[in-house]
Task: structure prediction
Amino acid sequence: MRPYLNEYFLAARVEPADMDRLWAEGWRHFGAYFFRYSQAGSQTVLPLRVHLAQFALSRSQQRVLRKNQDIQVKLQPAFVNAQVEALFARHKTRFSHSIPKSIYTFISRHPAHIPCRCHSLTLHHQGRLVGISYLDEGAQATSSVYQCFDPDLSRRSLGILMILHSILLSRAWGKAYYYPGYAYLEPSEYDYKKRLGALKYFDWQGNWLKFEDNPALTPPSPGLALE
Result:
């Protein structure tokens, strides 16, 4: 039986090693609001992390990279501008419920350093911004806070593309882990995270367990239709 947790705190500044510790204990954050919860309604929350030294691109992930070779990828300190806000407005049209009002639901007004060091990984197609991912950097780990993309290019799997670039970048930085956020024990729209590879999940009792040791957690592959 997993323990029931529903906790939060506020912090405007967290040091890199402390971010590592918080992620390892199942914490996430939106701006200065830190939270962790083991249940979301009837669903069981699964914090996830990728063991970067063991990660290898799957065939489907290689296809995502190949078909997006014309996409320009940039990395810079985390930012929001008018282009990002317009992209966010397009992205949220994908959802029919729980629609966020603002990108600042997820990041602070000073995202490059509040509450920690954060990067913007951006995608550009024919000179136009088509995707952005906010990637936190700790001492030994990185974590994706939020990402959005142009729904007109959904067939390109831009959400997966940004995750893959985040993984490869984190490994190039010499990090040990990449945290893609939560999924659920039960089937959900977040099941694509369960197929990343070299994956572990947190059992809410202090243990990170190998995904492949629990085949019941791995969903069937849907091909490349997601994101």
